[in-house]
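ok new one. same drill as before - C-alpha cells go in, u give me an amino acid for every spot. 131 of them this time. try not to just spam alanines like last time pls lmao
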C-alpha cells in the first residue's frame, strides 16, 4: 500500500481501453488515490472524452478496434486548441517497433500491461506533457 502522505497532487486521468473491466478497475484505483478519472471504451469515445474532460494524463490502450490508440494520439496531438495531456501508451505490446511508433506518435511514455498499480500511480504522478 502506498502511504497517503507521500502522494503527489491529484490529476485528471482519462483511461481509454476497450477492455471495460480493466478500464473501470484502473480508474477506480486511481480514484481511491485522489485522482479524478473518466473512462472511455474505444478510440472514438476516447477522443470525445479527452475534449470534454480535459485530462492531465491519458492512459491509452493501443490495440482497440475501429480507432486504435495510435490514431487517437495523432488526432489529439493535431488539436492545437486543446490543452495537450500527457499520453501514456498502456498496452501489452512491448516490441521495439511498437515502442518506436509510440515515441514517434506523440506519446510521452509507454507502460506494459499488466503493470503493478504502484507503477501506474508513479507514472501518472510524474508524467507531464510540455506544449
Amino acid at each position: 500500500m502506498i502511504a497517503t502522505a507521500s502522494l503527489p497532487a491529484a490529476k485528471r486521468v482519462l483511461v481509454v481501453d476497450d477492455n471495460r473491466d480493466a478500464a473501470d478497475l484502473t480508474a477506480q484505483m486511481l480514484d481511491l488515490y485522489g485522482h479524478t478519472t473518466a473512462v472511455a471504451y474505444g478510440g472514438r469515445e476516447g477522443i470525445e472524452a479527452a475534449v470534454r474532460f480535459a485530462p492531465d494524463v491519458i492512459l491509452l490502450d493501443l490495440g482497440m478496434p475501429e480507432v486504435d490508440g495510435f490514431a487517437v494520439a495523432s488526432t489529439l496531438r493535431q488539436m492545437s486548441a486543446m490543452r495537450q495531456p500527457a499520453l501514456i501508451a498502456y498496452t501489452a505490446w512491448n516490441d521495439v517497433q511498437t515502442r518506436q511508433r509510440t515515441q514517434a506518435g506523440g506519446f510521452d511514455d509507454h507502460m506494459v500491461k499488466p503493470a503493478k498499480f504502484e507503477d501506474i500511480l508513479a507514472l501518472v504522478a510524474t508524467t507531464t506533457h510540455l506544449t
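The chain has one domain: 11-126. and btw The first helix runs from residue 20 to 32.
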